[in-house]
Amino acid sequence: MRKNWSVALILVLALSLLVTGCTQNEKSQGEEQSVVERFNGKIIGIEPGAGVMLAAENAIETYGLTEYTLVEGSSATMAAALGDAIRNEEWIAVTGWTPHWMFARWDLKYLEDPEGVFGEAEEIHTLTRVGLKEDMPEVYAFLDNFQWPLEKMQEVMVWNSEEGADPYQSALRFIEENEELVNSWIPEEAAAEKGKVRIIYVEWDSEIASSHVVQAVLQEKMGYNVELMAVDAGPMYQGLAAGDADATVASWLPATHGHYLKQFQDKLVDLGPSVEGAAIGLVVPSYVTIDSIADMQ
């Protein structure tokens, strides 16, 4: 009997030591996981050639993030990856910008950039082709007047992010709810002849919002027929410089699209910012415990 108790006691102690050892081992493995491993060695990006991607490549070099891969994709795939990671409470770093609806949907933060790789605050400018002022003075005047707060743009972006949303219907809703602001854009002198206006833009959520608002105002309030053309950043500047489009409200300056503007500036007219206070950088969920790009090593 005493022997049986001794055997039982030994088994209990052995099991206890085994469980304790496994728990400590699991804890040790979790604690030993590096920051790079927690991010899976990836920075989730958008379209290749975008200014934020060029800045991210520079950040990898500047901060010595040699163990990371910058993953190319689109703004949609970036947002989808971010949402999946947040649902699983996983670490993720993405190339991000403001305005963007993801900041309204999730609790996010920019990683600090002590080396200033991503630059200071950005502005979103309106550009036209050379000659638009002479060809369509009313349209030119409207585009010159077009300015709206970042918060208003982000509001439209949130509407567009809802399931089944139609960007044009969101633009009509904005016009209805912001009549005074919209009327301030419309010039007093109306043109006798209404032609076709071609607006070119990069298919980012912010530019989808602004371009459809411009389209809706020109069509519903001013009587023009507007064609929207969604392209990548490079072709947007090339098309506008070649006269294949009349205008864009999607030029991020000075950092994101600065190299494109420098290349084509003699063939474009810069009407200045339509949105101020924009920003680009590396974005992470707020539960990520590092606060700086320098801490990603």
Globally, the shape reads: globular
Count of individual beta strands: 9
The CATH superfamily name of the largest domain is Dipeptide-binding Protein, Domain 3
Percent helix among the residues? 40-55%
Q: Show unreliable segments.
A: 7-15, 17-30
Q: What value does the average pLDDT take? A: 91
SSE string, helix = H, strand = E? Answer: HHEHEHEHEEHHHHHEHEHEHE
How much β-strand is present in the residues? 15-25%
- In CATH terms, what is the architecture of the largest domain? Roll
Question: How would you summarize the topology of this molecule?
Answer:
Blueprint: H1 2-32, H2 35-38, E1 42-44, H3 51-62, E2 69-71, H4 75-87, E3 94-98, H5 102-105, E4 108-110, E5 122-129, H6 132-135, H7 137-145, H8 150-161, H9 167-177, H10 179-185, E6 196-202, H11 205-221, E7 225-231, H12 233-241, E8 247-253, H13 258-264, E9 268-285
Parallel strand pairs: 1-2, 6-7
Antiparallel strand pairs: 3-9, 4-9, 5-8, 5-9
Helix pairs in contact: 8-11, 9-11
Description:
- The protein is an alpha/beta fold.
- The chain has 2 domains: 35-120 and 282-296, Glycine betaine-binding periplasmic protein, domain 2 (D-Maltodextrin-Binding Protein, domain 2), CATH 3.40.190.100; 122-278, Dipeptide-binding Protein, domain 3.
- Helix content is 47%, strand content 21%.
- The chain has helices spanning 2-32, 35-38, 51-62, 75-87, 102-105, 132-135, 137-145, 150-161, 167-177, 179-185, 205-221, 233-241, 258-264, and strands at residues 42-44, 69-71, 94-98, 108-110, 122-129, 196-202, 225-231, 247-253, 268-285.
- Strands 3, 4, 5, 8 and 9 form a 5-stranded antiparallel β-sheet that branches. The protein has a two-stranded parallel sheet with strand order 1-2. Strands 6-7 form a two-stranded parallel sheet.
- Helix 11 links the parallel strand 6 (196-202) and strand 7 (225-231).
- The longest helix has 31 residues, at 2-32.
- It is globular.
- The termini are far apart.
